[in-house]
Structure formats: structure tokens, C-alpha cells
Amino acid sequence: MQVVGISLRKPGFNEITAATVMGGGLWIALVGLLSAGGHALERPEAAALLLVMLWGSLSVRLGIDFAAGWRHRIVHLAVCGLLLGACQAARMLFG
Fold it and tell me: Where are the transmembrane segments (predicted)?
């Protein structure tokens, strides 16, 4: 399957699990460092950061590498925008 000329790959269960654990671990480390430094994130900011970090780690497994060219960057930023828009819409709908 291709998206904007980027050949996507189908990762296995172990790859998805490893990427998700890595993204979650990086999120925990970053939120902890920010909190320890006196710049604690609010809940919506932390949720948005989690979504973007999980997408960043999963996108590489799907074949979308941010450093691979402009098409990869456009797809990456478009998906990040969609995720953040969905997060904002959920906040507005559910409180």
C-alpha cells in the first residue's frame, strides 16, 4: 500500500508492541523531567504529547520516517494534526 508515494509496510505484533512501549517510556521520561524541572504539564498537554510520541514511534515501524524526505514529513505532520484535532474535539465534547 502506498500513501503519497510512500510504500507502507505491515509491522508485526512484536514491532508494534516494542514501538508502543518505547513511545510510552519516552513520554514518561519527558513528563518526569519536565515535572522535576518545575515545568509540569497540564493534563491536556500531557495527553497531546503522548499521542504525538506514540505516533512518532509507530510511524517508523509503518515505514514513515521523518528524516526520509518531504513526503514523509508531510504525512507525519498531517497525522499529528489529525490526532491533535481529535484530542481537542474529544476535550470539547466530553469536558
Answer: 16-36, 48-68, 74-94
What are the residue ranges spanned by the domains of the chain? 13-94
- 71: Cα separation from own chain's centroid: 17
Nearby residues of 50 by Cβ (< 8 Å), 6 or more positions away: 23, 24, 27
- Cα separation, 42 vs 48, whole angstroms: 10
pLDDT in tens, 2-20: 778 888 899 999 999 999 9
| Total-model pTM | 0.85
Which residue in this structure is represented by grid cell 491536556?
Answer: 44
Amino acid identity of 46? A
* Look-up of cell digits 512518532: 56
